[in-house]
Amino acid sequence: MAVHHFHLHADWPGSRNGVGRITAGSLTTEVSIPPEMNGPGIGTNPDEMLLGASATCYIITLAAMLEKSKLKKERLSMNSEGVVEVAQGIITYQKIIHRPQIVLPASASDRDIALAKKLAVKAEASCMISRALQGNVDIQLQAAVKRGS
């Protein structure tokens, strides 16, 4: 069994509406509370970072599954949305919606289309971040698979 360790260093010189800096591997960025939550909106924020972790884990997992299945693609892209609710002073990350778009070659068969749709669903269930969030954040999938030109 392999165990991997990831490390993050954070500096936060100010108060609630201050701006901090994080470094983790090759990621170095400023962080603050987003303007939607009455913060300065400088750099990124935990809401975007959680969305980013979920989205990148999913799309990398999906790309690996498509490759392993030898299913050729012309393009793989995705838009993801995080929904955060603020009610009575309590902030809750409600859901993440992934909207991957898989474009297969024009010669793709109906079977290829069906396999791509199946892999889109399987990738969500296989993604490490999705499994970590399970039971806490509703993760939804709205996959689109089509033939290219």
How does this model look, in words?
With 149 residues, this protein is α/β, with parallel strands linked by helices. It has a domain at 46-147: K homology (KH) domain (GMP Synthetase, Chain A, domain 3), CATH 3.30.300.20. Helices cover 31% and strands 33% of the residues. The mean pLDDT is 96.
List strands and helices in order, with pairings:
Blueprint: E1 9-11, E2 20-24, E3 27-31, H1 46-68, E4 75-87, E5 90-104, H2 110-126, H3 128-133, E6 138-141, E7 144-147
Parallel strand pairs: 5-6, 5-7
Antiparallel strand pairs: 1-2, 2-3, 4-5
Helix pairs in contact: 1-2
Q: Briefly, what is this?
A:
The chain has 149 residues and is of the alpha/beta class.
Supply database-style keywords:
3 helices, four-stranded mixed beta sheet, three-stranded antiparallel beta sheet, alpha/beta, GMP Synthetase, Chain A, domain 3, 7 strands
Main beta sheet strand tally, sense and closure: 4 strands, mixed
Low-confidence region ranges: none
Number of helices, counting only DSSP H or I runs of 4 residues or more: 3
The CATH architecture of one domain can be given as 2-Layer Sandwich
Structural class by helix and strand composition: alpha/beta
In the CATH hierarchy, the third-tier topology of one domain is known as GMP Synthetase, Chain A, domain 3
Which homologous superfamily in CATH is the superfamily of one domain? Answer: K homology (KH) domain
Q: Span between N and C termini? A: 44 Å
Rounded mean pLDDT score: 96
Helical coverage, percent range: 25-40%
Return the CATH class of one domain. Alpha Beta
